[in-house]
Write a structure and sequence with these properties.
Elements: H1 2-29, H2 33-59, H3 65-92, H4 107-120
Helix pairs in contact: 1-2, 2-3
Length: 121
């Protein structure tokens, strides 16, 4: 039984590490801000879940499970929010290649905000 658990932990660690590696490679290889942002967030959340699950299984402690769940929930909540803020900041500072967008839902919103800022000045 113990060797089976070790194999499961090893597989989870390797898969979590590969997802984290895929995120790092995506950051280096993808051409623009939005695709890099996607590469950094999507596999990283699942990779951290796999790594935390492996850690919980390897340590054989039920007392550690709530801490690991809280750590993953914080990852699950903060990574999409930070990616959203980076994407909006990149869009507003013209770091987004608009030729790659199929639908630009922020164009009207940003134009209205910029017009409102011009009126205030």
């Amino acid at each position: 039984m113990n060797s089976f658990l070790d194999v499961v932990v090893g597989v989870l660690l390797v898969l979590g590490g590969l997802l984290s590696l895929a995120a790092a490679i995506g950051l280096l290889r993808f051409p623009d801000l939005l695709t890099r942002m996607h590469a950094a967030t999507k596999p990283q959340v699942l990779g951290s879940l796999l790594l935390l699950t492996a850690l919980g299984l390897a340590l054989h402690s039920w007392a550690l499970v709530p801490l690991l769940v809280v750590a993953w929930i914080f990852q699950l909540l903060t990574v999409p929010v930070s990616a959203h803020m980076v994407g909006r900041a990149g869009y507003r500072t013209k770091h987004v290649d608009k030729g790659r967008l199929t639908v630009d839902e922020l164009e009207d919103v940003v134009a209205r905000v910029e017009r409102a800022e011009d009126v205030e000045d």
